[in-house]
Amino acid sequence: MVAGPDWVVVLDGATAPPGVDSGCVHNPAWLARHLGGALAARLSVEDERPLDDLLAEAIKTVCELHADRCDLANPDSPSATVAMLRRRGDALEWLVLADSPVMLDVEGEVRVMRDDRVDHLSSYTLQAVRAARNAADGFWVASTRPEAAYEALSGRIDAASVRRAALFSDGASRLVERFGTLDWDGLLDLAYSAGPQAVIERTRAAESAEPDGARRGKRYDDATVALLRL
Ligand SMILES: [Zn+2]
């Protein structure tokens, strides 16, 4: 996560399946760190430019950092989800690329901004997911293609109408999306009343309690929650 006086970004690097050659000597944490740095540098000074432009440029900058050492055409190159929120004048602007949600409480109505294209693939074999990644009829993530930024969902809203705002990595929204122990309103309430640590502790408890046979994907996932005071 990176944040400034009027913006915040949550990035979550995706872990490659074991044995997959990413063509990259770096790992997803490296990608998320450098993407976060490149975004922070732009968000700090370029407040007139749209979020998707800044994200596209940040992806391009990170590509340039490893183009000489790594094969950026490899479809398994490290990737990250991106959730961004920025206050600009009277508006609150949001952007989500992949499945880390931004949640807004708009005059009491909780809205979830989440790109769920990855949940609607026709197949989840290694090959199918690889082919769908950063493809027109698949799903988009921040990796080696700057144009992915323009596939993100984004919007703006009158800041005065927003009572609460929060960003979650997809590992931090599992109480809703994987375990179903909370709905979205409940997740936002828990985060605000008990704090991000409580969300993460309850997520870890649910992950630990999950029977082996019921598990899809990884047991534990990185969890980040950013809460805004407006
Ligand atoms: Zn690399």
Layout of helices and strands:
Layout: E1 2-4, E2 7-14, H1 28-45, H2 51-66, E3 79-88, E4 91-97, E5 102-106, E6 109-113, H3 126-132, E7 153-158, E8 162-168, H4 174-177, H5 184-194, H6 196-209, E9 225-228
Antiparallel strand pairs: 1-2, 2-3, 3-4, 4-7, 5-6, 5-8, 8-9
Bound molecules: zinc ion.
Question: How is this structure best summarized?
Answer:
This protein is of the alpha+beta class and 230 residues long. 30% of the residues lie in helices and 24% in strands. It has a five-stranded antiparallel β-sheet with strand order 1-2-3-4-7, covered by helices on one side.
Which small compounds were modeled alongside the protein? zinc ion
Q: What does the oligomeric state look like here? A: single chain
State the end-to-end distance.
18 Å
Form type: globular
Q: In percent, how helical is the residue content? A: 25-40%
> Considering the protein shown, what is the CATH homologous superfamily?
PPM-type phosphatase domain
CATH class: Alpha Beta
Main sheet overview? 5 strands, antiparallel
What does this structure look like?
By secondary structure, the chain is α+β, with helices and mostly antiparallel strands. It has a single domain, classed as 4-Layer Sandwich (Phosphatase 2c, domain 1). Helix content is 30%, strand content 24%. It has 6 helices and 9 strands; from the N terminus they run E-E-H-H-E-E-E-E-H-E-E-H-H-H-E. The chain has helices at 28-45, 51-66, 126-132, 174-177, 184-194, 196-209, and strands at residues 2-4, 7-14, 79-88, 91-97, 102-106, 109-113, 153-158, 162-168, 225-228. A 5-stranded antiparallel beta sheet has the order 1-2-3-4-7, covered by helices on one side. The protein has a 4-stranded antiparallel beta sheet with strand order 6-5-8-9, covered by helices on one side. Strand 1 (2-4) and strand 2 (7-14) form a beta hairpin. Helix 5 crosses helix 6. The longest helix is centred in the first third of the chain and has 18 residues, at 28-45. The two termini are 18 Å apart. The model has no long low-confidence stretch (mean pLDDT 93). Bound molecules: zinc ion (ZN). Residues 24-26, 66, 70 line the site of zinc ion.
